Amino acid sequence: MKFIVSSTYLLKELQVLGGVINNSNTLPILDNFLFALNKNELTVSASDLETTLSSVLEVDSDNEGNIAVPARLLLDTLKTFPEQPLTFVVSDNNTIEISSEHGKYALAYADGTEFPKAVELANPSTTTIMGDILATAIDKTIFAAGNDDLRPVMSGVFFQFSPENLTFVATDAHKLVKYQREDVSSSEVAEFIMPKKPLNLLKGILAGSEDDVTIEYNDVNAKFIFGNTILICRLIDGKYPNYEAVIPKENPNKLTISRSQFLSSVRRVAIFSNKTTHQIRLKIAGAELNISAEDIDYSNKAEERLTCSYQGDDMQIGFNSRFLTEMLNNLNADEVSVEMSLPNRAGILTPADGLDEGELVTMLVMPVMLNS
Amino acid sequence: MNKTILHLDLDTFFVSVERLLDSRLKNKPILIGGLSDRGVVAACSYETRGYGIHSGMPMKMAKELCPEAIRIKGNAGTYSKHSNLVTEIVKEHVPLFEKSSIDEFYADLTGMDRFFGSYKYASELRRKIIKETGLPISFGLSGNKVVSKVATGEAKPNNQLKIDYGLEKPFLAPLSIKKIPMVGDKTYQTLRNLGLRKVGTIQEMPLDVMRRVLGKNGAVIWNRANGIDHTPVIPFWERKSISTERTFDKDTIDVTKLNGILIAMTENLAYQLRRGEKLTACIAVRIRYSDFNTYSKQMRIPYTSADHILIPKILELFKSLYNRRLLVRLIGVRFTHLVSGNYQINLFEDTEEALNLYQAMDHIRKKYGEKSVIRAAAMGARTIGRMNNPFNGQPPIVLAHRKQ
């Protein structure tokens, strides 16, 4: 097995694939890239058993072969090269030799057949979506997903496809984000929960991409096909909580405020809140929003007043400032509105502007109980 | 700069309070503590000491040693009320003080020599406390907390003692090593086995030897024996945990009853958390079997103060902990990793009705007392509960025999 490839081209592709590889693997073979050579096509795969990412690279060769190359070692080597052609030759004593303009390097490789095979999807359904739209959908939702191992369904993003629209939902039971696209649709109704790791990879690869992504999915796996790359991952098994039911329908109290002003006030005040619980208090009366926080343990205290437009009864509500900053940060609107009903019911944060055609964002944040 | 630290200690505090309320008790042997078979002596008057009675002793044994003693159950509420009276006076008169237990205070009088003379000032303070509250109190005055405490112990009953700078070592030298705070029964035995009896001997020993025998604590004891102690007077006592426990009059194996008690304990502690605007992230259950083997198990949880999350977790802990088919002597619940904050509402698990119910229940408790509304499952354990707000910056009321 022998092939020639450009060093920077290979590095660029391998760096993306390297994102799949865990730092510590129970299965040593997973520390490797799988190189499957078929004439001019080199298919490189990386896997953590849950997610497999593979790319097809164009190389100069007339051989065939299948080997697993240590990922870390190869990446570290490639990073140091300026642009130049590299020749990879498999020698007989289970090493692969790389020749550059500067010299020769030999790496021990493992047999490619040991590498776990990517799953094949049985009777998949298919949807096509533009890469950037998918990346944006992931970006808007993924921060709200939870980390609780005890509730695995909430550690992923819920994909809901229908002929009318596509909906992406993430929640950790304290905050919830629902991102809907009405300008894109699927031919059939489908629902699945995607784990965070492959989504983060996709977000990185697809940001700004105008190419279409084909999504194939069944009950167990999903496959994302775009350009020369295929990502196959296992879905999170389980039933997603009925999030529609928890979005309050009647919210008589509506606050509209400049996002950047609100965000910077919350941030500042939050510095004075308790370091573990990050709780702040919002008091709204008339056209004034009062944000305050207190850390009793250290006698730290802050209070800010903002003008806002407000319709509804005077109210007082407590929030975890982390949630508010995360959400406000994730939006790019100039003005946001917060709709509330009672101090123990969810507040609904929506952007007032800055959305694309057909884009719909709803963010929910649960308050903390305040002792009145 | 040399510090001036005052240690005040109310003599036989519980007994003094009882005598204040009922003068017939004066000059009579008195025992205060649990009256059941399992009860222990929480406090005893000087008259009973001659019979070999000391606090921490089982009440049954004390009764045999001194049958004529008057036994009183005691009331923590009354004691803390009187303790607060004393606290008020101390607070008014000293710049910086620490209430280290229900009947003990440290005050930092550093620099007051310039104006009043610390000893004179302390004596006046003591007289004032005795006059205004009618409770006997002793004090020790020296350059640090440890020496002052030991001095108070030597001054008692109802007296005062001042240890001048530089005289700490000669003062401590002739005392028994047991007088050093921190030397309990175990350490005392270890040191006695080394042939040590007087503090003076420790003073002559090299520090390294103590460290080799007792580790880190050895160094602290050596310092204390030499009258060296740099711990500051801390005015605010921050709660790091809240807990409650119950020893049964009769060992039990009735799991339904145990569960009921755990529910009552958890419900009560959770209410304390909410009232103090605190959250817990670590809960533990303790269990002591009739053979005195004690086990405890703890669990990390997301920050919370909600009954409906805590109670099932506590019961689950108990279920996994209670695995010996033995009678249970004691069970307890403890919440640690406390932080200030309020309960974060869950989107899917909390209903508005439940939240409103909790708020209403807490409201009733605030108005009519914490036992006015309780879960039906906890009704069998009505006596679980405490009176004071545990987050008022004061130390917990620790019974005299419990070593801190």
What does this molecule look like?
The complex is a heterodimer of chains A (372) and B (404). With 372 residues, chain A is of the alpha+beta class. Chain A folds into three domains: 2-114, DNA Polymerase III, Chain A, domain 2; 125-243, DNA Polymerase III, Chain A, domain 2; 247-365, DNA Polymerase III, Chain A, domain 2 (Roll). Helices cover 17% and strands 42% of the residues of chain A. Chain A has six helices and 26 strands. A nine-stranded antiparallel β-sheet of chain A has the order 9-5-2-3-4-17-16-15-10. Chain A has a nine-stranded antiparallel β-sheet with strand order 14-11-12-13-26-25-24-18-22. In chain A, strands 1-6-7-8 form a four-stranded antiparallel β-sheet. In chain A, helix 1 packs across helix 2. The model of chain A has no long low-confidence stretch (mean pLDDT 91). Chain B is of the alpha+beta class and 404 residues long. Chain B folds into three domains: 8-143, MutS, DNA mismatch repair protein, domain I; 170-225, DNA polymerase, domain 1 (Orthogonal Bundle), CATH 1.10.150; 241-381, 2-Layer Sandwich (Dna Ligase, domain 1), CATH 3.30.1490. Chain B has 14 helices and 13 strands. A five-stranded mixed β-sheet of chain B has the order 5-6-1-7-8. In chain B, strands 9, 10, 11, 12 and 13 form a five-stranded antiparallel β-sheet that branches. Chain B has a three-stranded mixed β-sheet with strand order 3-2-4. In chain B, helix 4 (76-93) runs antiparallel to helix 5 (118-133), helix 10 (207-214) packs across helix 11 and helix 12 (255-275) runs antiparallel to helix 13. The longest helix of chain B has 21 residues, at 255-275. The two termini of chain B are 30 Å apart. At the A-B interface, loops of A face strand 13 and helix 14 of B.
CATH topology value of the largest domain in chain B: Dna Ligase, domain 1
CA distance, first residue to last residue of chain A? 75 Å
- Compute the CA-based radius of gyration of chain B: 24 Å
Provide the helix percentage of chain A. Answer: 10-25%
Q: Please tally the β strands of chain B and state the result.
A: 13
The overall pLDDT average of chain A reads: 91
CATH-defined superfamily of the largest domain in chain A: DNA Polymerase III, subunit A, domain 2
- Name the structural class of chain B: alpha+beta
* Contiguous helical run count of chain A: 6
- The count of domains of chain A is 3
**Widest β-sheet, arrangement of strands of chain B:** 5-6-1-7-8
Distance between the ends of chain B = 30 Å
CATH domain class of the largest domain in chain B: Alpha Beta
Count the E strands of chain A: 26
Oligomer: heterodimer
**CATH level 4 superfamily of the largest domain in chain B:** DNA polymerase, Y-family, little finger domain
**Given the helix and strand composition of chain A, which structural class is it?**
alpha+beta
Query: What's the architecture of the largest domain in chain A in CATH terms?
Result: Roll
